[in-house]
Automatic annotation (TrEMBL):
<feature type="transmembrane region" description="Helical">
    <location>
        <begin position="155"/>
        <end position="176"/>
    </location>
</feature>
<feature type="transmembrane region" description="Helical">
    <location>
        <begin position="24"/>
        <end position="42"/>
    </location>
</feature>
<feature type="transmembrane region" description="Helical">
    <location>
        <begin position="182"/>
        <end position="203"/>
    </location>
</feature>
<dbReference type="GO" id="GO:0015386">
    <property type="term" value="F:potassium:proton antiporter activity"/>
</dbReference>
<protein>
    <submittedName>
        <fullName>Na+/H+ antiporter</fullName>
    </submittedName>
</protein>
<keyword id="KW-0739">Sodium transport</keyword>
<dbReference type="GO" id="GO:0015385">
    <property type="term" value="F:sodium:proton antiporter activity"/>
</dbReference>
<feature type="transmembrane region" description="Helical">
    <location>
        <begin position="54"/>
        <end position="76"/>
    </location>
</feature>
<dbReference type="InterPro" id="IPR018422">
    <property type="entry name" value="Cation/H_exchanger_CPA1"/>
</dbReference>
<comment type="similarity">
    <text>Belongs to the monovalent cation:proton antiporter 1 (CPA1) transporter (TC 2.A.36) family.</text>
</comment>
<dbReference type="InterPro" id="IPR004705">
    <property type="entry name" value="Cation/H_exchanger_CPA1_bac"/>
</dbReference>
<feature type="domain" description="Cation/H+ exchanger transmembrane">
    <location>
        <begin position="12"/>
        <end position="402"/>
    </location>
</feature>
<dbReference type="InterPro" id="IPR006153">
    <property type="entry name" value="Cation/H_exchanger_TM"/>
</dbReference>
<keyword id="KW-0813">Transport</keyword>
<feature type="transmembrane region" description="Helical">
    <location>
        <begin position="83"/>
        <end position="104"/>
    </location>
</feature>
<dbReference type="GO" id="GO:0051453">
    <property type="term" value="P:regulation of intracellular pH"/>
</dbReference>
<feature type="transmembrane region" description="Helical">
    <location>
        <begin position="264"/>
        <end position="285"/>
    </location>
</feature>
Amino acid sequence: MEGLFEVVVFLATATLGAALARKLGLLAPIVLVVVGLVLSFVPGFPHVRLDPDLVLVGILPPLLYVAALETSVPAFRHNLRPILLLAVGLVLFTALAVGVVLSALLPGVPFAVCLALGGVLAPPDAVAATAVARRIGLPRRVVTILEGESLLNDATALVLLRVASLAAVGSAVGVADVSIEVLRSAGGGVLVGAIGAVVFGFVHKRITDPLLDNALSLIIPFAVVFAAEEIHASGVVAVVVTGLALGHKLPVLMSAASRLQVGAVWRLVRFLLEGLVFLLVGLQLPDVLQDLDEPIGRVVGVTAAVLGTVFLARYFWLFPVTYLTRLVPRVRRRDGERKPAKYPLVIGWAGMRGVVTLAAALALPLTVAGGAEYPRALFIWLAFATIVVTLVGQGATLPAVARRLKLPPDDPVQDALSAAGVQQQASRAARERLDELADSAPAPVVDRLRRAVEDRTNLAWERLGGTERETPSQAYGRLRQEMIDAEREVFRVARDTGRIPEEVLVRAYRDLDLEESLLRREGDR
């Protein structure tokens, strides 16, 4: 019961923290980390020591899976080159830079374990990048690159951590060993992910019950990760591959009812897990400080040097790969016109670290070759400090940086024009199908369906107009909302007075709720 109570307390605190963030107009990850830091020193507040397996197998897979489900595969494929340059190249570059700096500052520590910490600190967090980038409205291509980087960079970092840790404890690691490890981890992850996409896609397509579809969707990321871990492949890669494939095919794999429910369920799961993740990061401060027995001057100096290296390495990598790769004609033709420096600047500033960094740091070896000790507590502190400084410092200032750089937003008129053009084609297809089937239904029903198609087409074109006055569709939504409220009240009174049973009220409310949700969705477009 005590463990269950603590879970409820953490979830409730995370929910209240997220509500506070919305009230203050701040980003929830930042507020939750600060709340965790404060609560970590409150006597009597439940305490939990972060388990690396809990994070890497229990929390990370569902968050990566839902992020991959929502990622556009065509956009991901179009931006694959910059994504891989960040998710693989930048992680290796940052890890090497941190390893060199640490080795210089701590000459008695083997370079292999310094490189392992570099791998721990290198990858920006998937949760933080997605939560912050979408919240502040960065351009769509920038968000795609950041999300793609965060989906794949953990795999690179964890492979590097594994190889470097083996070298640190005295195992012989050569080029052949590294190649085999990379092939097994990345290649095995892709293979498991592809098999998972085929198998679970087959099952999804044959399920007609939305509840079963929801249950299967929640099971998939864990099943894929366990299968990948069984053959020592990358669970991160496997989950991402499965999520991308199933997300791309979701319109033909699930019924409309299943898609609506799955979307709602995953929004709730992500909200709770993201809140829990950032709260737990802040709550780890006492544990991190407890074992830290280094002189304060040394801690401050090493921390400042590592933070500076992590921050600068991102820019030292970003600018050359952004502009030097354009010397290749094929790249230049594909990317179009040269992007101004403000794009790599904001992408560089978005390198927030998160809970995976801390979990990976806790997985560092206890001793190095020969059983010798090294300042492991200092290394864990460096991981914690990097998370807090990048998340709170860069995350809090990223909106201001984006505003100052004045990145041009996605053109809403162009989006609306494209949507209206496709909607017109869709309406034409719907009318043609209706004409084919018109003889099988009464004329009033056919006329009603034709009006519904015309209304959807008109709504799409109305969005191209200005917002100075109320459009016919907005007037319709406003009036229909009042009508729905009146209908609800009649059904509620009838239930309270015993004229109808509870089941009738539930069915009526469900239909009215669905219609209101559609009105709100169309009003938010």
